[in-house]
Amino acid sequence: MTDTEPEWLSIGRELRAIAQIGLTFTQDSFDRQRFERVRELAAAMIAQGAGHDTKAVLELFKNTDLGYATPKVDVRGAAFRDGQVLLVRERSDGGWTLPGGWADVNQSPAECVVREIAEESGFAARAVKLAALHDYRLRHPPRHLDYIYKLFFICELTGGSATPSNETSEVGFFARDRLPPLSQGRSTVPQIELMFRHAEDPSLPADFD
Predict the structure, then answer these.
(1) What whole-number distance in Å separates Cα of residue 87 and Cα of residue 72?
(2) CB-CB contact of 144 with 185 (8 Å)
(3) 61: closest CA among 1, 5, 18?
(4) Measured distance CA(129)–CA(168) in Å, rounded
(5) Taking the complete model, does pTM exceed 0.70, yes or no?
(6) What angle do CA 71, 77, 83 make, to 5 degrees?
(7) What pLDDT, on the 0 to 100 scale, is given for residue 6?
(8) Per-residue pLDDT tens digits for 164-191
(9) pLDDT at residue 84 above 90?
(10) CATH class of domain segment(s) 72-208
(11) Is 142 exposed, middle or buried (CB count within 10 Å of its CB: 0-12, 13-18, 19+)?
(12) What are the residue ranges spanned by the domains of the chain?
């Protein structure tokens, strides 16, 4: 997001995304009404800011927010302490992974990975390098309904302390030869090994598919 982007566009875009996601997944009729109202507010905000007719913008949203078949973006952060990598244990499957998750609207990839590290591990961090951009289909044995790009960042811890969340049950640091059982759909041994190599040699170029 550039410094010149108007606030109404940023807010309207995010409201539109929230409405689209909610209408896609909710099975509750009352929630559907609420998400439809959020979409109406997004259309009104964007229409007012752009000088367009609200009804026309709303109809555009209704007709186009069915989802273009484009990859989803997952971000993962590799942070180290005393030569060990920070991992979190997922409540969903009991496996360990680099902190991360889906990228959010109106946040850069670096902002997303910093947020995910804070939410899932309790540590504050900053992203210092994009180490890899992987095609999920080429790197993970499990199949996924969505087509996914995974962005891996080398991150520096700046504060905080190990604190599990509603998504994670444990937080820990692990040596490369003593990794715990992994949540394979999120992080693999080769990917974590690659993060160790990037942490040891910052001059390595980004790895990509």
Answers:
(1) 23
(2) yes
(3) 18
(4) 25
(5) yes
(6) 145
(7) 84
(8) 999 999 999 999 999 999 998 899 999 9
(9) yes
(10) alpha beta
(11) exposed
(12) 7-64, 72-208
